[in-house]
Amino acid sequence: MTREEFIEDLRNRVRESFAMELETATPNELFVAIGQIVRACYAKSWHNTRQRYLVNKQRQSYYFSIEFLPGRMLKSNLMSLGLLDMVRSTVEELGFEFEEVLNVENDMALGNGGLGRLASCFLDCLASRELPGNGNGIRYDYGLFKQQFVDGYQVELPDAWLKSGNVWEVRRESEAVEVRFGGNVYMQPTKDGKLKPVAENERILRAIPYDTGVVGYHNDTVNTLRLWSVEVPESEEGKYRSIEERRMVEDLTAVLYPDDSNEQGRLTRLSQEYFFVSAGIQSIVRYYKKLKMPISRINEYVAIHINDTHPALCIPEMMRILLDEFDLSWEKSWGLTVSMMSYTNHTIMQEALEKWPLQMVKYHLPRMFQIIEEIDRRFVTNLTGLYPDDLIQRTRIIQGDQIHMANLCIIGSHSTNGVAKLHSDLLKSVVLHDFYVLYPERFNNKTNGITQRRWLQQANEPLANLIDKTIGTSWRKEPTDMERLMNYCEDNEVLVAFEQAKQQNKLALAKYIEKTTNIKVQPNAIFDVQIKRLHAYKRQLLNLMHILKCYFDLKDNPEMDFVPRVWIFGAKAAPSYTYAKAIIKAINEVANLINHDPIINDRMKVVFLENYNVSLAERIIPAADVSEQISLATKEASGTSNMKLMSNGAITVATMDGANVEIRAAVGDENIYTFGLTEEEVYRYYEQGNYSAQAIYDQDPVIQRVLNAFVDGTIPNIQREGQEIFDSLLRYNDEFFLLKDFVPYCQVQAKLSQDYLNREKWQKMSLINTAKSGIFSADYTVQRYADDIWQIAPVDLHKEKRN
Ligand code: GPW
């Protein structure tokens, strides 16, 4: 597309869609028109990709996830299509601010945090590697709530992201399917003496797919993210007479559950899970029928991935279709199902492990329940005599009145993986050890990754351009090529240029901070960033305690040498998570206190940015000097913001948790600040039960002063919240060992501040972090999933063998 063609197209679309002339258009119209042009640009490739897969009967993977978090798509699609520079300069020549046009787009925020973002990074990488992999999920009418601070408290507002339309999606009426809930199922004998399930009084809902193209980077692959929305089928219209009854149905895909790593166990959530799973599996089977292959070979063409346990019903739903619709035997159906399914575990935190009340499943999903019962019965029967009874009881699916979804996933799939080495090892040795005894060959690790296309190329153009200038552009396709930057560790000119790029990004963020919060920050201060969901285990409170310590040090000794620092937070708390909300309030009040204290004289600033989401992350990450990754060891399965920040040259302050361990191995001890309890030490405390927060408090006057600040009025306006925080640390004995890690944390922070003054040393560390970040590209992660778990390939290597 030439720029003349682009302008012509733009002019026509603005005219046709808005009855306006280009000259009078605002960024809103421009965004829609450019979106339409971009979609038209990849429409052909999208169709061709689907045709190619169909004609080649290509084996494909389907990533089932209850969350996807792509963020904005205009810039990333332009970049993938190689149109970014042309479109940007043309738009600017036409007299518009390109940034303003980009800012029109609502984030697609159909996810909470790491888990949903990982799913979106994976889709980007699959397409960019020309791998045949698709997404399957829910098209929520409302994404994750918008966060506002009112008087320092989090307030949640609805995210009506579809209000102004969605240029990227395509509604596919002809591919709708029916999903059935409730009713009774009984077994009826057929003529040939078999028993077949017959259902009556089911509620039938219509699932309508909306497809979004996932555009590969500089290739012609466009894969599909298919999201399902609920509707009342015409045949059922009569049954839902009142508006309330219709609302009940439409509620199903109305809102994303805003709980991160916390199981709510509500009926609507269970219905959401079955809804997108059943629709997705039916749509896969319908597609497979087009290949005209026997059902007994479906496992050669289909790989289904279960992203955490939320889509666990994939297993009984696939069984249902093979048994009830294709009349396959149980054994044959089970063999096919297990060989198609694979599962990723994302946490070892007990409160996140899904369990559903047996009665709820039995009543609302009766056929699922029957099949799960039978899977459980056969599991127990087959293992009895071969393994100790207590092991069988601990690993079976149905225990008491609950259905254990992780157990179902492991038993019903051929692969279970964790998301970082440490996490996968803990699964084998502790959390899922019983299963590891049963199925050692099923366990494997796939360390998470990120897409540098979004998180570096797109979000940080100053750095990306500098990398190009220094080592060429190959890293954009082969991220490990960034390692070549190691040759410039001692090159002063290069180091200075990198420092300038960082400075430019810090300036841009400082502007944004001032515009949105009225706080002025100095771009030469350390930008210290902690961005992630608010959770006790992630220990934002530990960060806050260190801030308070710095504050008291300065108050006591205003003349002391102090390296100026800006602490930047971004975090949403689940609306029902009162403790997390108390921490938000406390951070905001501490910010207020410090930012306005004349004695501090701008040497410390605390900034809590509202509504942390993907597009805000894209602003913050390029400007970070320091990356806070301070979860208690064993609690963060992997983390992915650690990788994004590292890639952008931030230095990590890290506990030995999740993927931090692998980051340290990559950059070397001297290029990361590690501290805190190790995995072994944490487990030792658990075994010996001898942790005493009170004892630590009693012996350390600094800790006393910091903790007392929460209850003695030092931090204003947090009577209730301060008390709750204080009690969590002392009365309830500090579940995440903050007091134990506090002193070493302060020590590495002091060291860091000193090192920051040595600009050359710091800049070298920063460069090394970027240079070594290539291995955390999700391009490689996805390739390992493709090779080890899904057996998918760009050119179908398995085809010869089959035909
Ligand atoms: F609890 N993660 C998340 F395991 O973002 F399901 N939401 C969740 O509900 C869960 C996990 C769940 C995160 C992990 O906390 C993080 O460590 C990991 O990097 C990320 O998933 C992607 O694997």
From TrEMBL:
Gene3D superfamilies assigned to the protein according to its UniProt record, in alphabetical order: Glycogen Phosphorylase B (3.40.50.2000)
Q: Which SUPFAM superfamilies match?
A: UDP-Glycosyltransferase/glycogen phosphorylase
Pull one GO CC term from this UniProt entry.
Answer: cytoplasm
Q: Which cofactor does it need?
A: pyridoxal 5'-phosphate
| Role | Phosphorylase is an important allosteric enzyme in carbohydrate metabolism. Enzymes from different sources differ in their regulatory mechanisms and in their natural substrates. However, all known phosphorylases share catalytic and structural properties. Allosteric enzyme that catalyzes the rate-limiting step in glycogen catabolism, the phosphorolytic cleavage of glycogen to produce glucose-1-phosphate, and plays a central role in maintaining cellular and organismal glucose homeostasis.
Q: Which family does it belong to?
A: Belongs to the glycogen phosphorylase family.
| Protein name as annotated | Alpha-1,4 glucan phosphorylase
Please spell out the taxonomic lineage of the organism that makes this protein. Bacteria, Bacillati, Bacillota, Bacilli, Lactobacillales
